[in-house]
Amino acid sequence: MFAVHLMAFYFTKLKEDQIKKVDRFLYHMRLSDETLLDIMARFQAEMQKGLGKDTNPTASVKMLPTFVRAIPDGSEKGEFLSLDLGGSKFRVLKVQVSEEGKRNVQMESQFYPTPNEIIRGNGSELFEYVADCLADFMKTKGLKHKKLPLGLTFSFPCRQTKLEEGILLSWTKKFKARGVQDTDVVDCLAKAIKKHKDIDVDILALVNDTVGTMMTCAYDDPYCEVGVIIGTGTNACYMEDMSNIDLVEGDEGRMCINTEWGAFGDDGALEDIRTEFDRELDLGSLNPGKQLFEKMISGLYLGELVRIILLKMAKAGLLFGGKKSSALHTKGKIETRHVAAMEKYKEGLANTREILTDLGLEPSEADCIAVQHVCTIVSFRSANLCAAALAAILTRLRENKKLVRLRTTVGMDGTVYKIHPQYPKRLHKVVRKLVPNCDVRFLLSESGSTKGAAMVTAVASRVQTQRKQIDKVLALFQLTQEQLKAVQGKMRTEFEYGLKRDTHLLATVKMLPTYVCGMPDGTEKGKFLALDLGGTNFRVLLVKIRSGRRSVRMYNKIFAIPLEIMQGTGEELFDHIVQCIADFLDYMGLKGAQLPLGFTFSFPCRQTSIDKGTLIEWTKGFKATDCEGEDVVDMLREAIKRRNEFDLDIVAIVNDTVGTMMTCGYEDPNCEIGLIAGTGSNMCYMEEMKNIELVEGDEGKMCINTEWGGFGDNGCIDDIRTQYDKKVDEGSLNPGKQRYEKMTSGMYLGEIVRQILIDLTKHGLLFRGQISERLRTRGIFETKFLSQIESDRLALLQVRRILQQLGLDSTCEDSIVVKEVCGAVSRRAAQLYGAGLAAIVEKRREDQGLENLKVTVGVDGTLYKLHPHFSRILQETVKELAPRCDVTLMLSEDGSGKGAALITAVAKRLQQAQKEK
Ligand code: BG6
Ligand code: BG6
Ligand code: GLC
Ligand code: GLC
User: Fold this and answer.
1) How many angstroms from the chain centroid is the CA of residue 659?
2) DSSP label at 832?
3) Within 10 Å of residue 805's Cβ, how many Cβ atoms?
C-alpha cells in the first residue's frame, strides 16, 4: 500500500518537475489572455488596412476579394467537375448537385499524388500534370464526351478581378513551381487542358479552400459566414459588407473576403511574440520571411517546431541526458501527425516513447513527459493564435451587423483541426472566452471544400448562361462594316429615287426642295421673329441681325405644348402657337409690331415656294387633326387672323435641318449639310439644281430636305431591324413609318432600351424577373437619362441611382446590364447616322467629280449634344465609310431659329427686289 502511494507521489512529482522545466524553457510560447486580446486587436487593424484602397498595397494581410457574393440558397443544380489543389491531398472530383430545392449532392472523387518534382518544378509542367490527372479521371468516369463546367479549388493567395481568374501572388506551404507567380492560374490550367483534344471543360470559378469550406458548410447551415482552414496551411475567409471593400466597385450586399491571415506578421507586427524557434524554422523554410503567422500555427510547421525545440533542449542537457540522434537533427522528421499522436489522452505517453525511440533516442519516463508537454505548448499556442484572429473576424462581423450579440457558424477544415485530439476543444474554448458576445457554432466540413466550390461553380454557370443570353440580344445591335456599307448604299439609292421625277413618289426618302438657294453672305440685316416648332422645345424668338459684322442678337422664350394640344385639332394647335407669340410680344414690349417671321417647322412639308409648305404627314410626337395635306403657313395666318390682335408677315417656312445648316453656314461657308440628331432624325444638304427634277431650272443649287427618317419604310432595312425595333414601331403614333428615325433618334432610343429590358426581365435576366409598373411606362428613358447612364465618369453606383430615380430598383449587376443595353442601342444609332452621312458626302464628292471632298456639317439635337459617345462614333463611322471625305461636324450653338431668321432676311430682300421690279 505504502509502495503504491510512494510510486504515485513519485510520478506526480516527476510530472510536475518536467512540466515546470518545459514551462520555463518555453516561457515565451505561453500566451496570456491579455496578449491574445492584444493580438486580436492587432489583427482587426490589419484587416482594416487590407481592405482600404490606399493601405492595401503595403498591407501584409491581403484581404482578397473573391467575387463570391452569396452563400448557397438551394437553387443550385447541375453536374460539375472540381479540382482541389493545395491542401495535403490533390483530388479530382465530379459533383452532382441535384434538382432545385432538394439539397442533395453526390460526389465521386479520386486522389492523385503530388510529387515534389512536380510542385517545385516548372509551372507549365505542374499544370500539365493537373490536366493529365483531370483527363485520366474523366476517362475512368466515362465523362470524356461531356462538356462540363469546372470549379478549381486553389489554396494559395490569388488576386481576383472576377470569379474565373486569379493572379497568384505567391506560393505558400510546400509549393514553389517556377514561372507561375504573377500569372493567371486559370489561364495556365485552361491552356494545359486545351492540349487534351479529347476533353472539353470550361473553368468557371477559382476558389480558395477557405471559401470552398465556408460554402460547403453554408449549404447545410445558412448561418455559416466564415470559413477557417487549419491544415497544411492556415487561413480564413468571411462575408464582408461590399461598402467596406474599397477594391471592388459597388456598395450593395456582401462579398466573401479571403483574408490570407497566414501572412499576418510579415511586416514585423508579431516580432514580440515570435521566438527563437520560430525564427529558426522560418530560415529553413521554402519562403523565409513569409507566412509568419502560418508558421506558428499550421500542420506543415508544428512538428518541425517541436523538433527544433527538442533539439535545443537536448543540446542544453534538459532532455535525453544531453544525447541527440541524427534523426533529431534532420528537418521534417517530426510531423504534425506525431504531435497529435503524442498528445492523445490515454495512449499519448506510450506513443511518445515509441516516436522518440523511432527517432533513435532513448527516452526516460521523464523525457517522455517533458516531450509531451512541449507538444502541448506548441499546439496550444497554435490554437490560441487562431482563436485570436478568428475572434477579430467575429467581432468585425458583429460590428458590421450592428448587433450586440452575434449568432453565427464557422465552417472548419484541415488536418490539424481534424486529427489533433485536443485542438478543436481548445480553439472553441478560447474563442468563446475572447468574444463572449458571439454564439459560435463550429461546423466541420465533412466533404472538404469541393461541395462548396461546386456551389460557386453552379452559380457561375447560371450567370454564364444568362450572360450568353444577354450577349445574344446585344449582338442584334452590333452591325458589321458590311451591314453599314449596305445601309450606306441603299440610302444612296433612295436619294437618287427621291430626286428623280419618275421615282420620286415611290421613294421613302422624299428629298423635298426647300427653295433655299444660297448661303447667307453677311449682308443680311434687320429684326425678325422666328418660331421653332417640332424639337424638344417650342420657342418664339426675336432675332436682330446687323449687316457686315456677322453679329446676331437673339431673345427667346420657351413655351410648353401640352400633349392634348399636340394631339388635338389643328385649329387648337395653331391658336396655341399664336397665343404664345402674343405672350412673347407682350413680354418683349413689342405689342402690335409688324415683323417678318421665319417659321421653323420640323416636319416634312412639300414646298412650292419659300413661304408655302404643305404638311405631308406628322412625325415624332405630333398628331393634330386636319393638318396633313394643308399648308401650315396658311393655317398659321388664319390663326393670327382669328385672334385679330396683330399682323405678321410670314416670309419663310424652314425645316430644322435647314435652319441648322444656315446657322452654321453663317460662321463657316463650307457648311453645306445640316443634320439633326434629336427627338427626330433628319438631314438636308445643298444639291445642284440640275439634279432636282421636281423644280424647274438648272442653275445654281437648292437645299434639299431629305427627310431620311422615312428611310426603310419600304422594308429595305428590315434585315437589321430587331424585334425590339418592331415593338417600338407598333407602339408609336405612326406605325410602319419613319423606320430609320425609329432606330436612330432620341424619341425612340429609350423606348428600344425599355423593350429590351422588358424582354430580359421576362427571361429572368434582370430585375429579379419582376417587371415593375415603371418599366411598363412608355417614354421613361428620355435622351438625357440615356446620356447620363452612358457617361464614363459615372460610377456604377450613380448609374444605379439614376435607375432608382426612374423607379427601377436595380442591383449592381442589373445596372451593368442596363448600361450595356443603352450602349448597344446608342452605338447602333450613331453608326446608322454615320452610314447615312457617308452616303451624302460620297454623293456630293462624286457629283462634283472631286478626288477628295472637304465639307462641314452643321449639327443640332439633344442626342448629339448630350450623349457622351454619339458624336465620336458618328465621326468614326463616316471616316470608315467615306474615307475620301474630310467631314467636320460643327455644333449649332444657337439652334435653328437664327438660321430661319437669316433665311427670312434673304427671302425678304428678294421679295423687296421683286416688288421694286
Ligand atoms: C480539405 C479541402 O478537406 O482540406 C482542401 O478539401 C483543403 O480544399 C484542405 O485545402 C486543407 O487541409 P489540409 O490539411 O489538407 O491542408
Ligand atoms: C434645336 C433647334 O436646337 O434642336 C430645333 O433649334 C431642332 O429647331 C432641335 O428641332 C432638334 O433637337 P431636339 O433634340 O430638340 O429634337
Ligand atoms: C495557405 C494559403 C491559403 C490557404 C491556406 C490553407 O495559407 O496561402 O490560400 O487557404 O494555406 O490551405
Ligand atoms: C422628323 C421630321 C423632320 C425633322 C426631324 C428632326 O424626322 O420629320 O422634318 O427634321 O424630325 O427634328
Assistant:
1) 42
2) H
3) 10
Q: What does the pLDDT read at residue 72?
A: 80
Closest ligand to the CA of 533: 2
Counting from 1 in the atom list of ligand 2, the atom nearest the Cα of 783 is: 14
Cα-to-centroid distance, 413 and ligand 1 (Å): 6
Q: Radius of gyration (Cα) for the chain, nearest Å? A: 40
- Judge whether residue 882 has pLDDT over 70: yes
Taking 90 as the threshold, does the pLDDT of residue 317 lie above it?
yes
From 681, 745, 748, 859, give the residue whose CB has the most ligand 4 atoms within 8 Å, as the site to mutate: 681
The whole-number pLDDT of residue 103 equals 73
Please tell me the chain's helix, strand, coil percentages from 3-state DSSP, rounded to the nearest 5: 45, 20, 35
Per-residue model confidence as pLDDT tens digits over 565-589: 999 999 999 999 999 999 999 999 9
Q: Which residues contact 595 (CB under 8 A, 6 or more apart)?
A: 527, 528, 529, 542, 648, 649
pLDDT digits (tens, 9 = 90+) for 393-409: 999 999 999 999 999 99
Give the residue whose CA is nearest to atom 11 of ligand 1. 414
Q: How many residues does the chain have?
A: 917
Which atom of ligand 3 is the closest one to the Cα of 172? 8
pLDDT at 464: 84
DSSP character at residue 1: -
Please give the distance, rounded to the nearest whole angstrom, from the Cα atom of residue 215 to the centre of ligand 2: 57
pLDDT band, residue 102 (cuts 50/70/90): low
Give the whole-angstrom CA distance, residue 42 versus residue 269. Answer: 8
Sheet arrangement for strand 234-241: 64-65, 254-258, 234-241, 224-230, 406-413, 438-444
Name the residue with the closest Cα to ligand 2, atom 7. Answer: 535
Q: What is the DSSP letter of 569?
A: B
Strands (E), 242-313: 254-258
The residue that leads in pLDDT, 442 or 8, is 442
Average pLDDT over residues 448-477: 90
| 3-state secondary structure (DSSP) of residue 24 | helix
Under a CB-based contact definition with an 8 Å cutoff, are residues 524 and 566 in contact?
no
Question: What's the pLDDT tens digit per position in 264-282?
Answer: 999 999 999 999 999 999 9
Q: Please give the Cα distance from 70 to 239 (Å, whole number).
A: 8
Residue 6 class from Cβ within 10 Å (0-12 exposed, 13-18 middle, 19+ buried)? exposed
